[in-house]
Amino acid sequence: MAVWQLNDELWFPDPHWGEDDGLVAIGGDLSVNRLLLAYNYGFFPWYAFNMESEPHWYCPLDRYVIFPSEIHISHSMRQLLRQQKYKVTVNEDFEGVILGCSKAQGRDEQGGAWLGPNIIEAYTEMHRRGYAASVEVWEGDKLVGGLYGVTLNKAFFGESMFSLVPNASKLALIHLAKAMEKVGGRFIDCQFETPHLSSMGGKHISYDDYIKLLQS
Known about the structure:
Elements: E1 4-6, E2 23-27, H1 32-40, E3 44-45, E4 56-58, E5 62-66, H2 75-83, E6 87-90, H3 94-103, H4 117-128, E7 132-139, E8 142-152, E9 155-163, H5 168-182, E10 187-189, H6 195-198, E11 203-206, H7 207-215
Parallel strand pairs: 1-2, 9-10
Antiparallel strand pairs: 2-4, 3-4, 5-10, 5-11, 6-7, 7-8, 8-9
């Protein structure tokens, strides 16, 4: 097991030789070209911006994904959808969503906070170039939840989500899955398993199967 030091060249090592927690490399930058290369091979940056000066690149060999056609919608969520209490949009307020994800529940003040200025700037540029998207949940004119991530090869790589009201992020995820299903989207990459994502239909697949789906 090893962790590689990246330089200015655009490359990533074989993730099979990385650490057990998925850490494979450190360094490089957060340019659009490097991020696109990273996601093409299942890598993503994740590091505490107030503790570490260089990006840490992860590529777990055990991947956690949601297939759009298999999104689980509970009885209570179906009731909430029928109520039409909230409006869901796509790409109407990327900046609001990424800032919401960074600050909700005081996340930006926590010791291991990773969604800092450099990440926000990098993914906002990805959005400007059409490689990142957001799903917004509105209560009236107020943004109350949402998610954002990278779109590539008919896959969506989820980066973060937030809720200011109960179930807002679940509404965003359901909307995303249904929209992807209509256009033949392959999967939503959840990066790591959480109880929240497990309840929505997430499942584990191997990195090798993941890459086959992504690059087919």
